Task: structure prediction
Amino acid sequence: MSEIIQSHALFAEAITEMRDLVASTMGPFGSPVMLTRQNQPALIFRDGAQVIRSYMPADAIKGNAIGRLRDAAEATLKAAGDGTSTTTVLLATLYLSAMEQIAEYEKTGQSVVRRLVADRIVEILGQMEKYLVENAIQVMDADGNIDMGLLQKVATISANNDPAIGEIVANLVAQIGSDGSVQVEYSKSGELETEKIPGYVFPGGLYHPYFLQQGQRQEEWIDPYIVLVNDSLVAMNDLNAITTSFTEYSLKQTEGRGLVLVCSDLNGVALGTAISRQMKDGRLMPLICVRPPRGIDVNQFFEDLSALTGAKVFSKDKGSLLKDFKWQKDTGTCTRIMSSLQKTTIVYNQPEGPTNKPTLSGLLERLASEYKEATVEDQPTIRERINRLSGSVGIIRIPGLTQAAVVWSKEIVEDSYLAAQSALKYGVLPGCGKALLNAFNHVVDVDIIVHEENEAVIAAESVSASVEQLIRSIFANAGTKKHASDSIISLLGGADFGKTISVSPEFVFWSRRVADEIAVAPGQPVNSIAKLEEHCLVNAVEAGILDSAHGVISAVRHTASEIHLWITTKNWVKEDV
Result:
């Protein structure tokens, strides 16, 4: 039996649930979220990205709502490595506010064209994105000089305001660069340590989020097998050559080693089959599939991986067919591989003694010779390739007395280095939602917009509500009540671009004083507002209350790309099977 749901109630209910869950993790005072399922142990997440990836309601319409929200958040994460919580709160609130206002106008008999509302919202968000790009604060100048003080502040605020972690992370990120890779390990010495080791890093990540284990940001395997296919895989038979050869070689899952398939493209039935291999059934080893980077010659890329891992490259263009694959002869390996949705790191050890497989040293010697003979125009490309092959990976070792303590510290360190690397590459913006509020105030003249058509008014008020909700979510985690947040938002709106509210114990104290005075004398001047402004309205760069520019900008971009379909969809069909 099918039922047409003309109300957006179920969709809105799911969006509200997810928004509130993710919002509770935001800011330095954010709280972990515990998710439970029947007959399964509870999972605890402190990061919004982990919450949105793991939570799924049973109802079909609610599940669709969460899926759409997850798609936008994952797209932001894939693009920037950050900003999933911002995307979730912005997109959810934008939709809820727009639908609520559309309903109010329709109750009074006024006409509202949903498509025009969506068009106006996308237009405002596009202007905000442009403003944010133009006003990002750069951490590294055009000559490659790094503002270490600023980089350290970025790393510190993302490490739950721990200056010791912030300093160590910032120094390591400055050494390996914005495109380098950082691995977090357990410290046996009981001290926080860093190290650089040989590694090859490329901006090609996992083909699908389902290759990640629940709650994980990256998949890591020790001594995995490597198979390289410079071709597109679509049909199930495309994987049969690998699985058949695997069976003949009699490798078992108990060996504890996984398989990494790097291929030019993966879709269709082949993608579904590869994902199913993640389900460790006791017969086949688990499999992850990694995509090649964009902007790098794909043939050279596979040649590099072949030299690093010893794996043969299979390519129809080169006459090497996958049906001829032999596991023992054609498979490569490496010391460790770490792959997320954005990038992959290969830590390698070159074989000692004679070998019939390509070696890194041999490839580097050939490239060095080619560099000397190349033209001035071609030399930079060859030099870039040599630099990638001669790269390094940063290791951070963290201490901990219990497994839970190690996991918690690892997540804090991961937040810190991801934010620092993003800041190094794209710059930073004032945090706590201040940058978004500035962008909105810059592109929307509220005094003018109220005199325009209904759709423009709804759009402006909806974007404003979504930005203010983001700010309230951060301050609510610091103990601030809604009526105090209204005063704080007005303070933020009148401050210079480089200013923001510092979410600190001092802020908590004065914001609660504001809340108390408003409650006692509503509508009267609040004496503590001046104290709040004096103590907490500080320069964002000096205070270190900063957000990754790329994360904020990507959140606005993917909110704009998703919201149009949400608003213009009016009916849902719910089928009871």
